[in-house]
């Protein structure tokens, strides 16, 4: 039986969902940016991402609107997971 190996992005995602950092790694933000672009306009993800960027800096959240939106999306995903934990 062939052993399955995880791709680097799968490892990054697993780490993010395990540790639930306030801001995930750049590869995770890049992946989330694709989903963030599909969300309905008017959701506060970009604004939340900009607020996180002001706290964590450009090294954690580069100054690109799609990555700022991804950071905001991660905030709401993370918050939902934390709210669901006992």
Notes on the protein architecture:
66% of the residues lie in helices and 0% in strands. With 86 residues, it is mainly α. Helix 2 (26-38) packs across helix 4 (65-84) and helix 3 (45-56) packs across helix 4 (65-84). The protein is globular and about 50 Å long. The model has no long low-confidence stretch (mean pLDDT 91).
Q: What is the topological layout?
A:
Blueprint: H1 8-19, H2 26-38, H3 45-56, H4 65-84
Helix pairs in contact: 2-4, 3-4
Unreliable runs = none
Sketch the major β-sheet: none
Distance between the termini: 38 Å
The level of helicity is: 55-70%
Can you give me a brief rundown of this structure?
The chain is mainly alpha-helical and about 90 residues long. It is about 65% helix and about 0% strand.
Keyword list:
86 residues; mainly alpha; globular
């Amino acid at each position: 039986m062939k052993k399955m190996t995880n791709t680097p992005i799968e490892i990054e995602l697993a780490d993010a969902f395990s540790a639930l950092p306030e801001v995930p790694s750049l590869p995770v933000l890049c992946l989330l940016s694709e989903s963030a672009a599909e969300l309905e306009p008017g959701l506060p993800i970009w604004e939340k991402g900009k607020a996180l960027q002001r706290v964590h800096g450009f090294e954690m959240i580069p100054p690109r609107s799609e990555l700022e939106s991804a950071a905001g999306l991660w905030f709401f995903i993370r918050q939902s997971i934390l709210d669901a934990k006992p």
